[in-house]
Amino acid sequence: LSLAQFLMGGPPEWVFGDQWLGPSGVDEAFTGTLHYANGAMAQISSGFAVPYYNHFDALGDNGRLLFTRPFTGLESDDRRLTYYDSDHAAHELPVPEMELYAGEVEDMHDAILNGRPTYVTLAETRDHVRTVLALYESARREERGYVEEES
């Protein structure tokens, strides 16, 4: 969700969420479609009741970008960033090896102890929360949900 909003430059106008709740009431599978003002869409999914699958795929006018294991499994040999151009030729792109969670801790450390701005702004964090709330409300009501403007 945060990667989609980063690439799109902000929150969607409206969303549609769908979930499968397990016996405990926890959403064991969740999917969402995010619709942006410029006509672009993003789709997200997560789940506990499915085999492990972690990737990011971006489709655009000039090709496709596929990132396997963008958020976890940094030590994995199958972590790749590949750009497929409009002729479908694959181009492997370098991915820096770095610990993502350590980076988050260092970012917060710099903000608290050194007064530096955080990488993800408070406004971006609020956009993420408002989008998640709209997705859950959409799933609950089984209808389109709107991301409320910040007041």
Q: Please write the string of helix (H) and strand (E) elements.
A: HEEEEEEEHHE
- Strand order, biggest sheet? 3-2-1-8
Helix content: 25-40%
Structural class: alpha+beta
Q: How far apart lie the N and C ends?
A: 22 Å
Q: Indicate the mean pLDDT.
A: 90
| Major beta-sheet overview | 4 strands, antiparallel
Rg calc: 17 Å
Plain-language structure description:
This protein has helices at 2-8, 100-114, 122-141; strands spanning 14-21, 27-35, 41-47, 55-60, 63-68, 81-85, 90-93, 145-146. The chain has 151 residues and is α+β, with helices and mostly antiparallel strands. The radius of gyration is 17 Å and the shape is globular. It is built from three helices and eight strands, in the order H-E-E-E-E-E-E-E-H-H-E. The strands form two sheets. A four-stranded antiparallel sheet has the order 3-2-1-8.
Helices, strands, pairings?
Elements: H1 2-8, E1 14-21, E2 27-35, E3 41-47, E4 55-60, E5 63-68, E6 81-85, E7 90-93, H2 100-114, H3 122-141, E8 145-146
Antiparallel strand pairs: 1-2, 1-8, 2-3, 4-5, 5-6, 6-7
